[in-house]
Write a sequence for this structure.
């Protein structure tokens, strides 16, 4: 095995991505690892030589990049969406974690709350305008008007090109394209209420 150089940032220690990026983390793994690091700073003590208490790691609200923002993150129960939700919460946003699988959204929202953040989980099929309407209403009830939309939900089938069906292709397009379109349509009125 190859030893890690001393210059590896704390949030990347132990992260490996075989293949295209060799022994170094891929961009997505880097973001996920950074999110994990941000949510554990203070508890692990590696952020300061003497080991900081959780209270010492809390930043002032005016130092947070997303303080006062209300975000809906689709696909929020997945790896990438969950990392985004945790990072947004760490930066001060109130996060509506939206996912097709409510149990996954609830797990991410619970983790954010346990770390002192504000989060609410909702079930959302991004291909349903009715569910979008309810998700935006739920976010507004919990936190106020939506100011940030992260259209992260995606769909993919791990089959070869020859095995991909028209139904699979329609699901991919429906999730990524139609879902994003419906999401933008649903949140614009809320963003206007927020002054954006």
């Amino acid at each position: 095995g190859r030893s890690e150089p001393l210059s590896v940032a704390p949030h990347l220690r132990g992260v490996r991505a075989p293949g295209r990026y060799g022994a170094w983390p891929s961009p997505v793994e880097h973001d996920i690892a950074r999110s994990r690091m941000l949510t554990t700073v203070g508890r692990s003590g590696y952020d300061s030589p003497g080991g900081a208490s959780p209270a010492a790691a809390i930043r002032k609200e005016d130092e947070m990049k997303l303080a006062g923002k209300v975000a809906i993150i689709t696909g929020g129960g997945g790896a990438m969406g969950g990392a985004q939700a945790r990072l947004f919460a760490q930066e001060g946003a109130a996060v509506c974690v939206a996912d097709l699988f409510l149990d996954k959204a609830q797990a991410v929202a619970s983790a954010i709350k346990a770390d002192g953040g504000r989060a609410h989980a909702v079930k959302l099929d991004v291909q349903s305008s009715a569910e979008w309407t309810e998700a935006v209403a739920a976010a507004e009830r919990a936190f106020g008007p939506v100011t940030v939309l992260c259209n992260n939900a995606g769909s993919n089938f791990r089959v070869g090109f020859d095995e991909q069906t028209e139904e699979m292709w329609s699901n991919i397009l429906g999730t990524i394209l139609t879902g994003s379109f419906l999401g933008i349509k649903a949140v614009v009125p809320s963003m206007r209420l927020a002054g954006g």
In short: The chain has six helices and four strands. The CA atoms of residues 149 and 172 lie 20 Å apart. Confidence is low (pLDDT under 50) at residues 1-28, 33-57. The longest helix spans residues 166-193.
